[in-house]
Amino acid sequence: MTEIKPHEENMAEPVYRNYDSESLYAQYDNRSMLPAEELAAIKADQADRSNAYRDGAKRLHLDVPYGPHERERLDLFLPDSEGAPLFAFIHGGYWQWNDKEDSVFLAKPFVEAGAAFANIEYALCPTVSLDELVAQVRRAIAYLWREADKYGYDRNRIVVSGHSAGGHLTAMMMSTDWPALGDDLPANIVAAGLPISGVYDIEPLRLTPLNEAVGLTEDSAQANSPLFKKPASNAPAIIAYGGAESDEFERQANALASAWAKEGAPTEVINIEGRNHFTALNALAETDAPLYAAALRLLGLAH
Length: 303
Description:
Elements: H1 6-9, H2 21-28, H3 36-56, E1 60-65, E2 73-77, E3 84-90, H4 107-112, E4 116-120, H5 130-146, H6 148-151, E5 153-163, H7 165-174, E6 192-196, H8 203-206, H9 211-214, H10 218-223, E7 237-242, H11 247-262, E8 267-272, H12 279-282, H13 290-299
Parallel strand pairs: 3-4, 3-5, 5-6, 6-7, 7-8
Antiparallel strand pairs: 1-2, 2-4
């Protein structure tokens, strides 16, 4: 009779790669990785900075509708000059939490550098499916391309970025067949992409409690995983993750970069050293941070 050692007896079966259900959830449950007080302080600071910039911005358009749903709206912050590149940002929250309002603080350094900044809102799961949520963000990007002349930025220099779920949505925008959505839409609407702390194979999320609101099936997880899609053009992608995030976020970033590089797309990976899932976003607004420098480079505004 084979002796069963205690740790072997208690080992759970892996459900994704070498992770069992509990350890897989631990890799993606970002909110549980920080003390509640620390997370609340990070979010409060972002909200305060967002409110301050929104109140003081000179050229802005708030809650611009781009589709029929009440949450299909975006904010635009514009520099003084015409013909500026546009940085289009998509907030995170695992497709089920958050609003665009607390991301406004990111606009300040971009507008001051001479870029326009769009802050995109979308409906949240479970009120819509992930398929519909992705379709909404596509409508936002198409709107921004079509209405460039109205607002005075350059439609040929739209850089799409997003954090967490927004990072995933950024990659989905980069792999979208735009001409299939409108005869007037070119394949290269997205001039460059900067996904931050995203999940690009979303199958593991289907196997965690995070899926209770999203309702992914095997088919919908596959269909909405940009890792298994080809980039729609040769637009460059800089894929970022926080150095203090879980191993899965690092693996996901490198997997997307590798897969798309094989398709001929220029890719680069940035490790935002020392940053967790939530403070990684702050680096996008820090003018001395490599992530901000990378964004300016994609916009054609590098100093």
